[in-house]
Specification:
- The structure is a single chain.
- This protein has 352 residues and is of the alpha/beta class.
- It has two domains: 237 residues, Aspartate Aminotransferase, domain 2, CATH 3.40.640; 93 residues, Alpha-Beta Complex (Aspartate Aminotransferase, domain 1), CATH 3.90.1150.
- Helices cover 36% and strands 15% of the residues.
- It is globular.
- The model has no long low-confidence stretch (mean pLDDT 95).
Length: 352
């Protein structure tokens, strides 16, 4: 393992914290009951799940009953968008989102367009930020949902989430936020940010893969994607994945306790990398004049294109040219196209 390159792609996934792994182990073989069973084995598992739910809720300042466990952010996004518009179809058929959203949001919106819903895709400026005036102007009497991500997964810029939430609330429109790249790196507060529905994944914050969260305000109605045993208040049927839920809960507890140290460490490392690239004339850091998450750097290289640079340096670092979810398809990043960047082929993403 010591011969592996330095891993600089945590926006794609993170290793599981050993403390998280330690608390998960017993739930694979010792405390193995089905959490839906009424006997002692089931109650042991259910109690552990409820402890995890409380830890997740505390991290984002939500109530325990507002936390729904899913298989990850992609499922949460589908449940949030499809579930909300289907449950509230009598109120309208219009969705507002952004051209730089994660593909899970864009593909879901495209699916709903094919079903007859109207979707407005907001433009962004050269820094990847939306215009609040354009957002306000896009709202109609038929607008059901506004979907804007907290931190962009490719370029790291932070949208003005609290202001977006205020606009949505003023116009009685539901606000859904994909916070997958925000939770664990910046302080997310669903109340202060006026967020109605929010999602994130365990594997982005040193928790296990295959587990995610959907936060939903108590008074909102969603139509479930899965029908069956009625778990998670009928919104996510299926046998509870107790070990992964427990692991996610522990990861959230660690972040709640250590967020200040985490952010400080990320900023220190980010600063070192920025100095390295700019001082050695390798490239320049993008978006330095707008709010950015502490763990994602977008760098435009001066000489080599991104793919050649990463191949040439593959023994030293592992980073990416764009979102990992697009890595099997050799197309230019839709995010970089949306900001009208003229040097797409020279941009790398380093994430810490």
């Amino acid at each position: 393992m010591s011969n592996l390159p330095k891993y600089l792609d945590t926006a794609a996934t993170t290793p599981v914290d050993k403390r998280v792994l330690d608390v998960m182990y017993p739930y694979f073989s010792e405390i193995f009951g089905n959490a839906s069973s009424n006997h002692i084995y089931g109650k042991q598992a259910k109690n552990a799940i409820e402890v995890a739910r409380e830890r997740v809720a505390k991290l984002i300042n939500a109530e325990n009953k507002e936390i729904i466990f899913t298989s990850g952010a992609t499922e949460s996004i589908n449940l949030a968008i499809k579930g909300y518009v289907e449950a509230n179809i009598d109120r309208g058929n219009h969705i507002i989102t952004v051209k730089t959203e994660h593909k899970a949001v864009l593909a879901t919106c495209e699916y709903l367009e094919a079903k007859g819903f109207e979707v407005t895709y907001l433009d962004v400026d050269e820094n990847g930020l939306i215009s609040l005036d354009e957002l306000t102007s896009a709202i109609k009497n038929t607008t059901l949902l506004i979907a804007v991500m907290y931190v962009n997964n490719e370029i790291g810029v932070i949208q003005p989430i609290a202001q977006i939430g205020k606009i949505a609330r003023k116009h009685s429109v539901c606000f859904f936020c994909d916070a997958t790249q925000a939770v664990g790196k910046i302080k997310v507060d669903v109340e202060k940010d006026h967020i109605d529905i929010l999602c994130f994944s365990g594997h982005k914050l040193n928790g296990p893969k295959g587990i995610g969260v959907l936060y939903k305000k108590t008074n909102l109605e969603l139509t479930p994607l899965f029908h069956g045993g009625g778990q998670e208040n009928g919104l996510r049927s299926g046998t509870y994945n107790t070990p992964l839920i427990v692991g996610l809960g522990k990861a959230c507890e660690i972040i709640t306790q250590e967020i200040d140290e985490i952010v400080s460490s990320l900023l220190e490392k980010r600063n070192e990398i920025e100095i390295h690239y700019e001082k050695n004339n390798i490239g320049f850091v993008n978006f330095k004049n707008v709010p950015r998450a502490p763990h994602i750097l977008s760098i435009t290289l001066n000489e080599l294109n991104a793919e050649d640079y990463l191949i040439f340096n593959s023994k030293d670092i592992s980073a990416s040219t764009s979102s990992a979810c697009n890595s099997s398809i050799m197309v230019h990043s839709h995010v970089l196209q949306a900001i009208n960047n003229k040097k797409i082929e020279k941009i790398i993403r380093i994430s810490l």
